[in-house]
Each structure stands twice: as structure tokens, then as C-alpha cells.
Write a structure and sequence with these properties.
By secondary structure, this protein is α/β, with parallel strands linked by helices. It has helices at 3-24, 43-50, 53-56, 72-77, 90-95, 137-140, 143-151, 166-170, 183-191, 216-221, 223-242, 246-255, 261-273, 282-285, 292-304; strands at 28-33, 59-64, 83-86, 100-107, 112-116, 133-135, 158-160, 175-179, 196-199, 209-215. It folds into 2 domains: 27-108 and 207-332, 3-Layer(aba) Sandwich (D-Maltodextrin-Binding Protein, domain 2); 112-203, Periplasmic binding protein-like II (D-Maltodextrin-Binding Protein, domain 2, 3-Layer(aba) Sandwich), CATH 3.40.190. Helix 2 crosses helix 11 (223-242).
Length: 333
């Protein structure tokens, strides 16, 4: 055998060893925090986990539930989470010069609603002016300011919302915040009545929701992990909404035993019927879509009502680098 032949064999063997090592490489571990307990609103993420989509993208993902006593934003800042799911805090990152950024917006519309009893004359946002409304602290410094400016609400109307339906059920005049995918179902189950549901999106509120956030550091040092996590999550959402949702539902009920199958079905049906995930820019750019025009419009609408000051550099709040690529759209068909 010639020296050249030996060299070729050595090179071939080295290539084989490297290929085997690459195939055996452990998946990248990712910790992802939700902003509430497991429910249909997070179905796509659980679907990506249950059906192996995260694993297919080389990720070993742990989903951490949220809740009233859990501050996942602090855990993200402390480096104990790689990704976090939240509402519209990304502009606050830019305002306060914090090194975190939005990389995908799963919900094109907010699920937040105001809920009232039927037959009480509370069938529109305009009709609620001057009436007591139960809302939480986050809403008070966010979308409440938008509604107040548009419909003439005043902070004197605000009553504390404790995430308990008891006060609402006990008072036919009561009005409270809620989510279109849960409270209407629970009210109907307990009372048999169909409540009045007023979606924020119908009032012109333009904020994205279920926004995936991560650190500038991860975007800078491991953009491949960010891209793979976003892509797999998007595919999980297409699978959950347009395929068989049972793999995700089983994981959700394991994580949150208080979640009944009927409520899961109602939640998913609401996401589909109201176009919460697959609407607007997502129809052409894919789930998770974000655009400069939409961010600018939302920001300026909130500046106008005093939520944010003018002059914030929005380029520090979000990036469209990882979305708008039509990933997974073929799964709809």
C-alpha cells in the first residue's frame, strides 16, 4: 500500500470519528419560563416538547410553569432561564437599558378582555365609563391606560382583581378583567349564563402577547440556539392548532392537574376562532411574526396615553432576525 493510500485511510477514519462525535453530541439544554400555569395558551410549546420537535432541533427543553408567586423575569435576569414568555415588557427593557430582547410574538392579538354580566347595559367599552372595574396591577400600568384615554375611564373606577371569580359571580353589576380563553368558560360552567366579553383587540389595542424574550448575551453568543428554539416553538404551535393537540394536552394536564379537558378544548378553540395566533402578519410571514410597523404603531399609541416616554430606541426592544421566515406554514395543510 502506498503512502498516499495510507494518508487517505487516515483522513477517512478521522472524518468518520468526527461525524460520529457530532451525531452523539448532547442536545443543548434550554430552560423556558411561562408566565402562568400550564394551559391551552401555551399549547404549542408543550406540543413541541411532547412530539419531539425540540429534540429534532437539538434542544433539551425544560418548561417551567409560572404563577402568582413566580417571577420568571427575575429568573431570566439572573440567568436561571434561557427564555421567558411575557406580555409587552420588551419596550421597558429598551427604556431601562436592560440587556434583554423580544425574539418572537406568538400571539398577534391579546387574549385580555373585560367581562360583564348580560342584561346590565355593559355591552360596550363606552358603556363602562364611570363604573367600577376589577383589574390587576399589571393591567393598571398597561392596557388600562389605553382604554382610559380612549373611552374616558378614570382610575377611581379601579377595584382590585384577585384572580378569584367569587366577587364577580356574587354581583350582577360587576365588571372584571379576564382572558377570552378561560373566564368565559368558567363563568358559564358555574352559572349557566353567557357573559359579555369585550376583547382589547376590538378596542384597537395593538400590543403583541405571549412574547418570547431572551438575553442579548444569548442572541450574541449562541444565535443558533435562539433560532432553533424559535423555529421548534413555531412548529409546535402549527401542530397544536392544526393537528392533533392531545400530545400537548396530556403534558399540560400532568403539569397542571387542575386543568380539565373541556377547558383545554375551549382554550384551543378560542385561540383558533379569534385568530389569536394565526392572523394578521402571521398569515403571510408565519406564526411568531413581528414587524417594525406594528411595534412602532403600538409604541406611539402608548406614548400618546403616557405609558411610555417618547424617544425610546425600539431597536433595543425586539429583533425580527429569528422570525418572519414562514417556518412551519406547510403544517397548516
Amino acid at each position: 500500500m502506498t503512502l498516499s493510500s495510507w494518508r487517505m485511510r487516515i483522513v477517512a477514519a478521522a472524518v468518520a470519528v468526527l461525524a460520529a462525535a457530532a451525531g452523539a453530541r448532547a442536545a443543548d439544554r434550554v430552560k423556558f419560563g411561562l408566565d402562568w400555569k400550564a394551559e391551552a395558551e401555551y399549547g404549542g410549546f408543550y406540543q413541541a416538547l411532547a412530539t419531539g420537535l425540540y429534540a429534532k432541533h437539538g434542544l433539551d427543553v425544560t418548561i417551567e410553569e409560572g404563577g402568582p408567586q413566580v417571577n420568571h423575569m427575575m429568573l431570566l435576569m439572573a440567568g436561571r432561564l434561557d427564555f421567558n414568555l411575557a406580555g409587552g415588557r420588551a419596550i421597558e427593557f429598551a427604556e431601562k437599558n436592560l440587556p434583554f430582547i423580544a425574539v418572537a410574538a406568538i400571539f398577534q392579538k391579546s387574549l385580555s378582555v373585560l367581562i360583564a354580566h348580560p342584561g346590565q347595559g355593559n355591552d360596550s367599552f363606552a358603556a363602562l365609563t364611570g363604573k367600577p372595574i376589577m383589574i390587576g396591577a399589571d393591567a393598571r400600568v398597561g392596557w388600562w391606560r389605553f382604554l382610559a384615554a380612549k373611552f374616558g375611564y378614570d382610575d377611581s373606577q379601579i377595584r382590585p382583581y384577585t384572580f378569584n371569580l367569587g366577587p364577580f359571580l356574587a354581583n350582577p353589576k360587576a365588571i372584571q378583567e379576564g382572558y377570552a380563553s378561560s373566564e368565559p368558560y368558567l363563568i358559564r360552567q358555574k352559572t349557566g349564563i353567557e357573559p359579555v366579553v369585550l376583547p382589547l383587540s376590538a378596542a384597537g389595542y395593538q400590543g403583541y402577547a405571549n412574547i418570547i424574550e431572551t438575553s442579548d448575551k444569548l442572541v450574541r453568543e449562541r444565535p443558533d440556539i435562539v433560532q432553533r428554539f424559535v423555529d421548534a416553538s413555531i412548529e409546535g404551535w402549527y401542530s397544536y392548532l392544526f393537528g392533533d393537540p392531545q400530545p400537548a394536552n396530556r403534558l399540560i394536564m400532568q403539569a397542571n392537574p387542575e386543568m380539565p379537558p373541556d377547558l383545554l378544548k375551549f382554550g384551543r378553540d378560542t385561540l383558533i376562532a379569534r385568530g389569536i395566533v394565526d392572523s394578521g402578519d402571521a398569515k403571510t410571514l408565519g406564526i411568531g411574526a413581528m414587524t417594525d410597523a406594528r411595534w412602532q404603531a403600538f409604541y406611539h399609541s402608548m406614548v400618546a396615553v403616557g405609558v411610555y416616554p417618547p424617544g425610546i430606541d425600539l431597536s433595543k426592544a425586539y429583533t425580527t432576525r429569528f422570525v418572519d421566515k414562514r417556518v412551519g406554514m406547510e403544517m397548516k395543510w
